[in-house]
Amino acid sequence: MTSMEYANRFRERWPLNTVVARAGVAIGLLAFVLTLPPFKARSPAVPVFVGLIAIACGIWVLTRGLRRPGWTAIGFGLVGIALGTLATHASLGNLDQVVVWSALLSATLIWATPLTYAAIGGLFSERSGVVNIGLEGMMLAGAFFGVLGADKFGSWELGLLIAAVAGAGFALIHAFMAINLRADQIVSGFAINFLALGVTGYFFIDIYGENGTPGDLPRIPNVDLGLGRHTFFGDAIGRLNIMIWASFALLIVAHIVLFHTPLGLRLRAVGEHPRAADTVGISVYLTRYVAVVVSGILAALGGAYLSIGFVGSFGENMTAGRGFIALAAVIFGNWRPFGAYAAAILFGASTALSFRLAVYSDAASVLFQSLPYVLTLIAVAGVIGRPVPPAAVGRPYAKQ
Amino acid sequence: LSETTPHAPLEADPESYAPSVAKRLAFYQRAGGIVTPLLTAVFAFLMGGIVVAATGHNPLRVYQAIFEGAGLNWFFHFGSYHIDVPFTNHQVWFWWDTNTNHNAPFNLTQTLITTAPLILTGLAVAFAFRCGLFNIGGQGQYLVGAITGVYIGSRFTGMGHLSHVLFAIVLASLAGALWGAIAGFLKATVGAHEVITTIMLNWIAYWGGSYLFGRGGPLQNHTDKSIPISDDIVDSAKLSAIWGNPQLQALHSGIFIALGALIAFYLILNRTTLGYEVRAVGFNPEAARYGGISVARNFIIAMAISGLFAGLAGGIDILGWQFRLGVLDVQVSNIGYIGIAVALLGRNTAVGVGLAALLFGALLTGTSTRSLDPGIFQPQLAGNLALMIQALVLLFVGADLLILYIWQARRKVRIPGLGRQAQEPA
After folding, report:
1. Cis ω on the peptide bond leading into residue B218 (within 30° of 0)?
2. Candidate from B21, B381, B399 with C-beta closest to A205
């Protein structure tokens, strides 16, 4: 292949508009970053100026007829200006306390991981045409049964296994309801959430009672890369949990399976046009069953990471809406693995930041927690080009 | 036969093989009857009983304790008592004991206190359902209503009783209506799915409420800044007590508001042009559009009215018995979510919603720490049992649809078959 061909391929993949749009997003972020340590620009003029460049990029892309990338860049520019200006008003001491990049990065990964598992699970289910509102319940089931398994069998591996089995069990109920009984998938998913809440709460009280789960639970270990403490990389990624590293692999595998294998093609066909898929001999029911069960297993693994990986205990309703954030990530990420992952990272970062913000303002920290939902609401409102769900999502299929 | 029969290609109407909410709804309405909802509830309780038995408790005694905790045994205890005649000092003979110092009458008042908002959040789901929309957002609309109720009730002082109550209730309802209308508006204008938007709005309300009453939040109380809770509402904003001792949580007049809402729900749907349009859109949006009905407008109105009901529920809970709202209340409340089960079990009809709300109100009260006898069953377990039963009701509502489908499919095979033969020229 000559260099010309490479250049052509590059231009095909990265047309000028896209490059400018992405640059706009990056510059918008930069507007905020410049006001944070280590740069710490103190004049609001800095974020405003840089943010305006981002907005200019966005407008330029908009004039070329690309709505979604254009508005995204403009949005990032505006957010960069707003957050940057806010940061210039904060005291330096507070800034240094809140923004510790290595800690923020590792916290982002920690909070994004349960979302990643559940979101990729939800992705499989939705791509096959089954709405999975029950992600929250399946996560919660994974969190509890992971603890139960780890405690009773004395090993975190078996804990993960039990969690996966529990998640698959709840997913099977949902699959049976949605696929065989053709029940309303929203009702069924909601039922799963409440069932998981009731079942985990009931057995948690029944087995562990008031004292809670034992303190010496086998935990999913962290991987020590030997990068040392108090170095940037050491603190950021030096001691991440196995499950976090596994989530990177999962992401890549999910992308390849969905978009580069016959299996993924079948899955997507079933989700887009089940009648056509059926006609060419793909079993719609089997495909959907597998997809929903996979989503249950993945969501449960995300929940188990939360309980026996990160926190080390279980509390009633400990997922506290994370399944719904994962659902939001699926939508925000436009039903694509990398998109969903980017959303999970964004939402994870907002959680991480909100916990650090709590150092000096409870109220701001709490308000920050609603960010994923607000962003998703704005996204589905179509301001920045609406995400497009699989065509047959939520529609039961009847064989003929 | 198939060659001569004109057949619309299946792909032209994807809904012909996959029922939409509207189709399902039309089906529910035709199926009617009280047998399937009753069976649904009975099965759910049976399954719950199995879990109770499996964990070493006696399900019969547990259910009996819950029944008594809900105060439903009150109806079976006849005696010779007296009851006040309203607005007079007279007393007349009555065959039931109304003294809330006794357990059964007190528990019953608590059940009715919970039933009132459940009726309203049930209606919030049911009304949207009749327009072919699935309003998952009752919880958010309820919270927004409650927040508004607290704000008006605690920050506006010096108003008369009636005007203050009316002001607070109307604004709470409008806040809920607005919250619902956002989802309706997004559905009508850009086609955003109402399930997604209402879920997001629920969580925004959840965190919004946590922010408002949290430490350092704008609506946190003025007396103790370490407690994340609002100010108490002033006396002029409280709904009047109608049964029981106001110091110990009496039944308030909100139950009449809820019953009035049931009637309003029935009248709006069945006796007004608005209701006709809403139902027309619910049965078949395309046909409604063809008939000159604005589908978009009805989506927005239906969601707004749904939100109005849920916001009203939040309002009467605050003005009737809670009197304040804390971060914890915001985060553990699930009255709006239970409304989904209430509406589905009640088949989205006024009477059904009323009865289902009473069932769930009794279940919630009967399993609460305050009412359940802890010697028989741990209230924490019972609370989770109630969640399970609620989930099972939802699941079985889905499953009873299957039974109805089979039942209907049988009839369908026979009747169109006959019709087709009749149409064909010999």
Report:
1. no
2. B381
Contacts of A131 in chain B (CB under 8 A): 195
Pairing outcome for strands B241-243 and B251-252: antiparallel
Q: Which residue in chain A has the smallest CA separation from B57?
A: A206
Q: Is B404 on the interface with A (CB under 8 A)?
A: no
Q: State yes or no: pLDDT of B22 exceeds 80.
A: no
- Overall pTM surpassing 0.95 (yes/no): no
Which of chain A's residues have a Cβ under 8 Å away from the Cβ of B398?
A: 177, 181, 183-184, 187-188, 191
Nearest CA in chain B to A184: B398
Question: Per-residue pLDDT for A99 more than 90?
Answer: no
Burial (CB count within 10 angstroms: exposed 0-12, middle 13-18, buried 19+), residue A348: buried
CA dihedral A390, A394, A400, B3 (to 10 degrees): -70
Supply the ipTM of this predicted assembly: 0.84
* pLDDT (tens digit per residue) in A192-212: 999 999 999 999 999 998 788
Chain A nearest CA to B413, separation (Å):
14
B10, pLDDT greater than 50: no
* pLDDT tens digits, one per residue of B388-402: 999 999 888 877 656
Q: Do B216 and A370 touch (CB under 8 A)?
A: no
